[in-house]
């Protein structure tokens, strides 16, 4: 806490006690670096200065603002939570850690952050930075990826957090982990905790914290049929229980391999009542890769020019709608789709 005032970064969400602004920043910063998250935070707080305004926004618009941050379920949960606060709670965020936990998408970390930063409640936050600092300074060897370890770290942090400055303590330990006690190259040489740090004293800085490896990502092969008629492209909104829920992509065939026989494309187009205006074999396909936390998507885009619009009933059944360029710009899309569209001349 002595170190913090001299080293803290001046970040906009640190200069407020508004639980909405704090909550917004925490949702955006989960699994996102400050540098990447900052412009998104500024965009959201400017576009939706109050929780009521965020709640009233259409979901597509919220997802469009979120585009590029990934983990889109966070954006949907965020929107749902805003509606919950605006409706059930009359626009006021719940006033304690326990009550905050009842909000959708608000876990222990976020509830502790809001409760301490906005209300000065004495609850210790635990994020990746805090786990690392505690593991190193106190020599805790439990696997930080194991759910059972959380209790040990929480008890330790709860013992440390002072009653009179809980917000300052939480900010300080997180910032210390973010810029001093970093994962790969901690600045041990100029560290005020050097003499009492277990990891430094025992030569275990690189070994701590202990974290078991995540499972290998599975590979999925997405074949997109980019159906075009005149100045429109057919796109569809992705459904629930899969990645990119609520975002827009093209007609999709998922297979076990990177190749898709031309006959499958022709079958799919005929199934939609479409008529080809081109020789498929002459159209170059585009391959792109997108890596998510648990999946690797190998996408191949197959441009398909149609001489007539799709049969309306078949298009509706497949969830496909023809959009012009202006509409497409406004739709929320996975990054891979945005990249494909911006790299392709239509
Ligand atoms: S001495 Fe090194 S490992 Fe220990 S707290 Fe300081 S920066 Fe982290």
Q: Your description of this structure?
A:
This protein is α+β, with helices and mostly antiparallel strands. It has 16 helices and seven strands. The chain has helices spanning 4-7, 19-29, 34-47, 51-56, 59-66, 72-87, 97-100, 108-119, 128-138, 149-160, 166-179, 198-201, 262-271, 312-317, 325-330, 335-343, and strands at residues 218-229, 232-237, 248-249, 251-255, 286-291, 295-305, 320-323. A hairpin with a 2-residue loop joins strand 1 (218-229) and strand 2 (232-237). The protein is elongated and about 75 Å long. The protein binds iron/sulfur cluster (SF4). Iron/sulfur cluster binds next to helix 9 and helix 12.
Give a concise summary.
By secondary structure, the chain is α+β, with helices and mostly antiparallel strands. It has 16 helices and 7 strands. 42% of the residues lie in helices and 13% in strands.
Distance between the termini: 56 Å
CATH architecture heading of the largest domain: Alpha-Beta Complex
- In N-to-C order, the SSE pattern is HHHHHHHHHHHHEEEEHEEHEHH
User: How would you sum up the global shape?
Assistant: elongated
* Percentage of β-strand residues: 5-15%
Instruction: Note the main sheet.
Output: 7 strands, mixed
Total domain modules:
3
Structural class: alpha+beta
Rg to the nearest angstrom? 24 Å
Low-confidence stretches: none
CATH third-level topology of the largest domain: Nucleoside Triphosphate Pyrophosphohydrolase
The hetero molecules present are: iron/sulfur cluster
> Helix count?
16
Number of DSSP strand runs: 7
* CATH classification, class level of the largest domain: Alpha Beta
Seen as an oligomer or otherwise, the chain set is single chain
Give the helix proportion (percent range): 40-55%
């Amino acid at each position: 806490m002595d170190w913090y005032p001299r080293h803290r970064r001046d970040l906009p969400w640190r200069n407020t006690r508004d639980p909405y602004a704090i909550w917004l920043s925490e949702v955006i910063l989960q699994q996102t670096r400050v540098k990447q998250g900052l412009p998104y935070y500024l965009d959201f707080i400017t576009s939706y200065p109050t929780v009521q305004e965020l709640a009233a926004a259409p979901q597509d618009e919220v997802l469009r603002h979120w585009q590029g941050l990934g983990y889109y379920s966070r954006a949907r949960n965020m929107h749902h939570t805003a509606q919950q606060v605006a409706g059930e709670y009359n626009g006021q965020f719940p006033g304690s850690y326990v009550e905050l936990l009842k909000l959708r998408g608000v876990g222990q970390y976020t509830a502790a952050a809001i409760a301490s930063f906005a209300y000065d409640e004495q609850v210790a936050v635990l994020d990746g930075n805090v786990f690392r600092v505690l593991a190193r300074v106190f020599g805790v060897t439990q696997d930080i990826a194991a759910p059972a370890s959380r209790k040990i770290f929480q008890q330790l942090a709860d013992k440390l957090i002072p009653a009179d400055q809980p917000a300052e303590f939480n900010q300080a330990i997180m910032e210390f982990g973010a810029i001093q006690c970093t994962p790969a190259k901690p600045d041990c040489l100029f560290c005020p905790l050097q003499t009492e740090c277990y990891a430094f004293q025992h030569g275990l800085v690189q070994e701590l914290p202990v974290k078991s490896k995540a499972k290998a990502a599975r590979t999925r092969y997405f074949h997109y049929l980019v159906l075009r008629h005149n100045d429109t492209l057919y796109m569809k909104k992705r459904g629930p229980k899969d990645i990119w829920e609520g975002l827009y992509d093209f007609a999709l065939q998922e297979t076990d391999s990177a190749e898709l026989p031309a006959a499958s494309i022709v079958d799919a187009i005929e199934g939609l009542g479409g008529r080809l205006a081109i020789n498929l074999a002459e159209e170059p396909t585009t391959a792109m890769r997108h890596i998510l936390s648990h999946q690797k998507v190998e996408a191949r885009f197959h441009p398909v020019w149609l001489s007539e619009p799709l049969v309306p009933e078949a298009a509706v059944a497949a969830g496909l709608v023809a959009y012009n360029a202006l509409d497409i710009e406004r739709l929320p899309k996975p990054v891979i789709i945005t990249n494909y569209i911006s790299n392709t001349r239509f």
